[in-house]
Structure formats: structure tokens, C-alpha cells
Specification:
- The protein is α/β, with parallel strands linked by helices.
- It has 12 helices and 14 strands.
- It has 2 domains: about 250 residues, Rossmann fold (3-Layer(aba) Sandwich), CATH 3.40.50; about 100 residues, 2-Layer Sandwich (Alpha-Beta Plaits).
- Strands 6-7-8-3-9-10 form a 6-stranded mixed beta sheet, with helices on both faces. The chain has a 4-stranded antiparallel beta sheet with strand order 2-1-4-5.
- The protein is elongated.
- The C terminus is likely disordered.
- It binds adenosine-5'-diphosphate (ADP).
- The site of adenosine-5'-diphosphate (ADP) has 11 residues, from strand 2 and helix 1.
Length: about 350
């Protein structure tokens, strides 16, 4: 059975506003109720200022809620004294966009630091540092200094350091945002390994859709301090309810034609243009919908169809995207085909261009 390792119960964090908001309280996190499952990788997404960092800082008690409660590993953080808070924080590792390494210390000394703070004896520290550097794949860099490492290697040191005391939870604040795409994939694979092999629960703050797509099991979407929607990644993205979620998806998966593209397609082709969403039937979980779509096309052999735009990609290893078709044939048959498609998926119809702006 799944159990939650972090629970936000109607939790809010208000700050005194500054600038235009001076004199008011700003709810950086506003009445959030959310469970983070043990052993999961959860993405927290949203635009800058949405409250993501504050939400995550509530987990390691760098901030305490101004109302509601945050329960971590069974403990209500508002009830803990300083000593208990320190103990709890030692169970939570953190990695950062800018790595936050000590530049004047070697790789090994950076990783050793939290072990020193925790009072480990020298021999145990050395063995642990060696084991950690091997785990993250940079054992040969132990004696080098951060300035001699690439961004990806620096983040590996950051991960090794964060894991030194075997925390139950790892918080990653935009941990791949400063890295190029290839290095990002390597670091994401390492985070997946941490989760799968060590059982560490990981919470990833990100503004990058592909981070969520490639490693997260769960996702929480935030806007203006509020939690808009949360749940398994595929369900939240493939069946997005909120505009902010849809905008976020469209920022990277450009499977739908823009108004300009639709106009060009209409000029280039005669026929009816429709965009058909391709997703997996979430309940069946077996790609039923894709089969249904092709079968429906076969039931109207007098309609000719051609794919003119679109893409299908994967979210959480399941298909997601849309295809735009030009349909030509007798009007009644085209209308019947569209009606049948609508019984299995979402279909957007693009009204014929009248020379003005396309109506979207
Ligand atoms: P995100 O991580 O999504 O960019 P943040 O959690 O950093 O969002 O910020 C959410 C809101 O709370 C912003 O409006 C920000 O200005 C405000 N905020 C965050 N931290 C503080 C603080 N220490 N004092 C005052 N306002 C803050």
C-alpha cells in the first residue's frame, strides 16, 4: 500500500509583501493540501513566483507554515523543537541549480562535509565518500576541485553530498536548469537510479516539462501559491483541466498547429481540417484509444484522410500528442467520421478560413 512521507494539510505560508505589495501579506503558499508518496519522484511545476520553492522549503522546515500543517515522516513540523528540527533536516538532502559546492575544497572534501557535521569517525567517512563517488560515477575526480569539473560533474558531487547521510527525502531545486540537454539526461538518469536503488523519495522543482516527463511519477501544478492539480503524471498531463497546466504542456510539446499554421494548411489543402488528440485510455492503460481511432477511419472508406501536422511523444512512458488531418469526401461522410471520432477522443475542428483571422 502507498503511504505518504510528506503531507501538506491546508498549509499556507504568508510573507510580508514588498514593493507594490508593501504592508500586505503575500501568500507564497496558499492553502495547499497534498500528499507526497514514499519512494516516489514528484515534480512541482509552475511559473516563476508560483510558490514552488516555498512549498519545498516547508518540507525541510526552512520555512514553517503560517497556518495549516506540514507532516514529514509522521512528524508535524510545527510541534518540533530546534533539536528535533535539526534531526529531521539530516533526513532531507537538497541539491541546487548552482550546485552550491565549496570551491576551496576538493570533491572528496565536499562530499565528506555533511559526515563531519554529523560526527562520523574518519575511517567511516573515507569509506562512505568512496562509495558515494562510485555511486554517482565520478570516483576518479575525488582529488579535483569544483572549478575543474563540468556542470554535470558538479551536480554529481552535489548529489553525492546530499546523499551522504542516507536521507529519506531528496529535494532538487531546478537541479538541471543550468545544464545542457545531454548532461540534463545523465543527471536525470542518476536521480532515477537514486530513487530506484536507494528508495529515496525525490521532490523535483522544475519549470522544464521534459524533466517531469522523463522521471516523475507524480506531478503537482502550482500557480499564485495555489495547488491547481496533482496526481500521476500521465493523468494530469493527458487530461489537463487547468489552463496553466495546458500552457505548460504546450510550451514543449508543440503538437497542435498555431492559427497561422492552420491558415496555411487551409490554403494548401481542400477539405476539412481537424486535430485529433492521441492519448492512452487511462483506465485501460493499453493504448486502446489509438486502435479505436484507426478502426474508425476504416469505417468511412469514402473519406480520404491525410496527416498534415502533429506529433506523438511519450509522457511517463505512455503515448501523448495529437495529429491534424485533412479530411476530404462527401460532406455527410466527413461529418459522420468526425462524430464517431468524438466518441473515443477529443477532436478540434478548424473552421474554414474566410480570409480573416482563423477562429480558434
Ligand atoms: P517559485 O519558486 O515558484 O518561483 P517562490 O516560492 O520563490 O516561487 O515565491 C512565491 C512568492 O512568494 C513570490 O511572490 C515571492 O516574491 C514570495 N516570496 C518568497 N520568499 C519570500 C520571502 N522570504 N519574503 C517575501 N516574499 C517572498
Amino acid at each position: 500500500m502507498l503511504s505518504s512521507i510528506v503531507s501538506f494539510n491546508n498549509a499556507s505560508k504568508a510573507f510580508a509583501g514588498f514593493g507594490k505589495a508593501k504592508g500586505n501579506l503575500v501568500n507564497a503558499v496558499d492553502s495547499v493540501t497534498l500528499d507526497i508518496e514514499e519512494d516516489s519522484i514528484t515534480g512541482v511545476i509552475g511559473y516563476s513566483g508560483a510558490g514552488k520553492s516555498t512549498l519545498v522549503r516547508l518540507i525541510n522546515a526552512l520555512e514553517l507554515p503560517t497556518s495549516g500543517s506540514v507532516v514529514v515522516d509522521g512528524k508535524d513540523l510545527t510541534t518540533l523543537n530546534q533539536k528535533q528540527l535539526r534531526e529531521l533536516r539530516s533526513q532531507i538532502g537538497m541539491i541546487f541549480q548552482q550546485f552550491n559546492l565549496f570551491n576551496s575544497r576538493s570533491v572528496a572534501k565536499n562530499v565528506e562535509y555533511p559526515l563531519r557535521v554529523a560526527g562520523w569517525p574518519k575511517e567511516k567517512r573515507e569509506a562512505r565518500v568512496k562509495e558515494l563517488l562510485e555511486f554517482v560515477g565520478i570516483a576518479e575526480k575525488a582529488r579535483q576541485y569544483p572549478s575543474q569539473l563540468s556542470g554535470g560533474q558538479k551536480q554529481r558531487v552535489g548529489i553525492a553530498r546530499a546523499l551522504a547521510t542516507s536521507p529519506k527525502i531528496l529535494l532538487a531545486d531546478e537541479a538541471t536548469s543550468a545544464l545542457d540537454p545531454e548532461t540534463t539526461s545523465e543527471v536525470l538518469n542518476l536521480l532515477k537510479k537514486v530513487n530506484r536503488e536507494l528508495g529515496t523519495t525525490i521532490v523535483v522543482i522544475t519549470h522544464e516539462m521534459h524533466v517531469v516527463r522523463s522521471i516523475c511519477d507524480q506531478v503537482a501544478v502550482m500557480e499564485k501559491g495555489k495547488l491547481l492539480e496533482a496526481g500521476p503524471v500521465y493523468n494530469v498531463f493527458a487530461f489537463a483541466q487547468e489552463d496553466a497546466t495546458k500552457r505548460f504542456i504546450n510550451s514543449t510539446i508543440q503538437d497542435k498547429p498555431s492559427a497561422d499554421t492552420v491558415r496555411r494548411l487551409q490554403q494548401a489543402h481542400s477539405g476539412t481540417i481537424v486535430t485529433v488528440t492521441v492519448s492512452e485510455d487511462a483506465a485501460a492503460g493499453n493504448g486502446t484509444q489509438q486502435r479505436d481511432i484507426s478502426e474508425i477511419f476504416r469505417t468511412q472508406p469514402d473519406v480520404h484522410s491525410a496527416v498534415v501536422y502533429g506529433s506523438i511523444t511519450e509522457i511517463a512512458q505512455r503515448p501523448y500528442g495529437s495529429l491534424t488531418y485533412v479530411l476530404s469526401g462527401p460532406d455527410a461522410s466527413v461529418t459522420a467520421l468526425i462524430a464517431k471520432l468524438k466518441t473515443v477522443t477529443a477532436v478540434e475542428e478548424w473552421p474554414a478560413s474566410n480570409g480573416n483571422e482563423a477562429q480558434l
